[in-house]
Please model this.
Amino acid sequence: MKISKGLIIILILIFVVAAVGLGIAYKNSKVTPDNIVSVYFVKLIDKDKTEVASVTRKVPKGSKRLNVALTELLKGPSLKEQKNGYFTEIPYKTVLLGIQETTDKIIVNLSEDFGTYGGSSSMTTRLKQFNYTVLEVIQDKPVYLELSGKKAEYIGGEGVEVSQPLKKTD
Model:
């Protein structure tokens, strides 16, 4: 059976158009600052040294970046990240109760679990994780932390102070 030159040309054109279309779709699906967020966990550097370090998470189309960042922070590091030395100081029972945004501020409401289970070092580190994650996403207005609907002033039994509005601290 003979295939005409015209049919071959048409098939080649269809293939080229499809390939170009796929290339454009791939180009448009790349990671950009709008569809990723940084989430901060604790990374074991060596036997006795840790630091707060970021990992990235994709933001699904139509999702709010802060909501994704906080949800991922509270989930904790992935298994792969755990194998690479990442962990969290935030208690696994901590729940995001809400995010309230007004024209001049944002209030993040977490369950009281955030301020329990651990000493002052753990509290300081979890505040860093939280503050760094939130302030990486929100840079244009002050952010405040509430625990079960009440302004967080101190957390933990030793009373680690929560600076309001939130700040990145070293």
